[in-house]
Amino acid sequence: MKAKKYSESQIAAILKEGASGIPLPELCRKHGMSSASYYKWRSQYSGMEASHMKQMRELQAENARLKKLYAEQCLHTDILKEALGKK
Fold it and tell me: In the chain, how many domains are there?
């Protein structure tokens, strides 16, 4: 998995700079990122502080883990139902 290049606090600072009126090409060049990254961050994290961003990422990771566990449990249940149905 690719490592994150920017921390939550860096993303929040970049978004604040963009909101202050710095032209987007200059902002992207200064921080070495693409405009697509800026727009993605703006849509995801608009108005959030760094602590909220970190908490949201942790919740998303937890949600993904729980979805995976649920899918595995459903698969296991289906296999058991199929095995019991054949007897």
Answer: 1
